[in-house]
Amino acid sequence: MTVILTRPDTATAASPKRRRRAPGWLAVVPLLVVTAIAFGIPALAMLNGAFTVKDQATGATSYSAANLTGSLRGAYLTALLGSVKLSAVSAAIATLLGLFLAQAVVTSRFRALREAVLTASGVLANFGGVPLAFAFVATLGNSGVLTDQLGLRDKGWDLYSFSGLTLVYLYFLIPLMVLTITPALEGLRTQWREAAQNNGATSAQYWRHVALPVLAPSLLGGFVLLFGSAFAAYATAAAMVGSSIPLVTLQIADALSGNVLVGQENVALALSLDMVVVAGLVMAVYLPLQRRSARWLA
Amino acid sequence: MARLNLWRWGVLGLAALYFLVPLAASVVFSVDMGDRISFDAYSRIAGTDGFVTSLLLALELAVATIALVLLLMVPAMVALRLGAPKLRPVVEIVCSLPLVVPPIAFVAGISTVLKWGPEYLSRTPLFQTMVAIQNPDFPVVLVLAYVVMALPFVYRALDAGLRAIDVRTLVEAARSCGASWPQALLQAVLPNLRGALLNASFLTLALVLGEYTVAHLLGFRPFAVWIVDISGAQAQMSVAVSVLSLLVTWVMLLALAALGGRRPATPTASQG
Q1: Which residues contact B61 (CB under 8 A, 6 or more apart)?
Q2: Are A141 and A147 in contact (CB under 8 A)?
Q3: A281/A155 same-domain check
Q4: Helices in B83-176 by DSSP H: which ranges?
Q5: Under a CB-based contact definition with an 8 Å cutoff, are residues B79 and A23 in contact?
Q6: pTM for this structure?
Q7: Tell me, what's the ipTM?
Q8: In whole angstroms, what is the distance from residue B155 CA to residue B92 CA?
Q9: One domain, residues A44 and A84
Q10: Is residue A212 in some structural domain?
């Protein structure tokens, strides 16, 4: 309200520079208001609920860290560690494979191939969730096409396992890595390679001393991004394995829908807070790295 | 050089294998009736209970989300380049925050808030709002949630687009040619952002159409939730629908690319 009231006199009295600034941040206000409502309130509610303990008998509520300690014990802790392990392993593999694929594409002379791979990556990186789960169930599940054709069941293959989930997660993590690392690879100037070659460097030396140091922030940032993405994934795992594998997202969903015990909703919120802490650490690593790589590749 | 090529084609071949085999196998799975091939699973989709309503709901949610997120983000992002560079870190952090709160944690928070409705607010006008945004025919709460979830992608897409053009010069040029502010934005800046806008729209579209976590746990039933619901009884059809949904996503992407790609190619000769 005050902004509208003061606008006429700033418009008349201020310099042109001042006039340009006023609409500048007015345009940002709606975004901040909507995020405050749609994101801020649920986030605060989660924080509040995670620390609230409700006495089943009296119905009285009090603040305590009981939910949080409860969420770091027993089955919940197993689930949290399971999620971290699954995400770290699949993100590491996807980082490596994504780098190879992106490098193969970026250095290609065929523009059409490049465009096709990048477009496909854009689609596949978002092909997580339900359809992905069903595609893999149809391929490598218990009665999947490849399982039958290659007799994988006799060889001990089980899609509904840790390694099975890793294989499935790679399907959206590798394209995500390709999308993340391609700008960095494109930013590697040919001059750098030529300069290295002119100074007598081999291809391996060029990668070791020039390309990888420049790429390192992007690679690490990409890894961290993939980790966060795998860590947060729920739909794929839910549609595929139900809750037979201990993952924190599946635990939260179970507790939220009251599948386990009555009054576990606040433990679900505490688990959510645990996830936020992990994801927050991820971002605390990712953002500075990204800024660093942006500086190199500007 | 030859070794490099061999390595490249090896990598590309393996990637193609990994990414195409599950798709091909899904198609085979959905048409294989044991001794014969039948497209039964596909032809029955349209008639199956809930297909049309859930798909329409997902599309409506997608359109509303795209409109809202672009309406919020484009002016803000352009303004950051023009008049309010100091707010840049603020917007960057706000748009990155959803990355820190995974969808499942976000929905845990949302459902807590929605529970306040009956518990604390039943006598206030806010309660009516709470009920209205949960209308199962068009749950506004999902649109709000999806806008938040789309922010990081949209921010990155728009930021990349804006980085490629010099907004200030464009606007100043347009202004000194006599364009008004809205004209400068709509006719000078936005056309140059077409790629970024399409990119952002597409990412949001894909996000909303495939979103399962929030919708499922809040008890709504758009497309992705419907697929899981039918999968228990009709495994083949759920795979068939998954294949179709990927195809539809591809077609939409190509349509968007064609729309966005054709026009800039005509006026400029700098393509070659």
Answers
A1: B138, B139, B142, B143, B146, B208, B222
A2: yes
A3: yes
A4: 88-100, 103-120, 125-133, 140-164, 167-176
A5: yes
A6: 0.80
A7: 0.79
A8: 8
A9: no
A10: yes
CB B70 within 8 A of CB B201: yes
| A65-123 tens-digit pLDDT | 778 887 788 888 888 899 999 999 999 999 999 999 998 888 877 888 888 888 778 77
* B110–chain A Cβ distance below 8 A for any pair: yes
Flag if B83 and A239 touch (Cβ within 8 Å). Answer: no
**Spacing of C-alpha B36 from chain mean position:** 38
Q: What is the pLDDT of residues A21-35, one digit of tens each?
A: 455 678 888 999 999
Contact check, Cβ <8 Å, A129/B228 = no
B134 touches chain A (CB under 8 A): no
Close Cβ partners of A140 (under 8 Å, ≥ 6 residues apart) = A146, A147, A152, A157, A159, A164, A167, B22, B25
Q: What are the structural domains of chain B?
A: 61-221 (1.10.3720.10)
Task: Write out the residue range of the structural domain in which residue A89 sits.
Answer: 75-297
Nearest-angstrom CA–CA distance, A245 and B57: 32
The single-letter DSSP state of residue A36 is I
Q: Of A139, A235, A294, whose CA–CA distance to B19 is shortest?
A: A139
| Residues, chain B | 272
Q: Minimal Cα–Cα distance from B4 to chain A, Å?
A: 9
Contacts of B32 (CB under 8 A, 6+ apart): A145
Closest-CA distance of chain B to residue A215, Å:
19
Same domain, A11 and A110: no
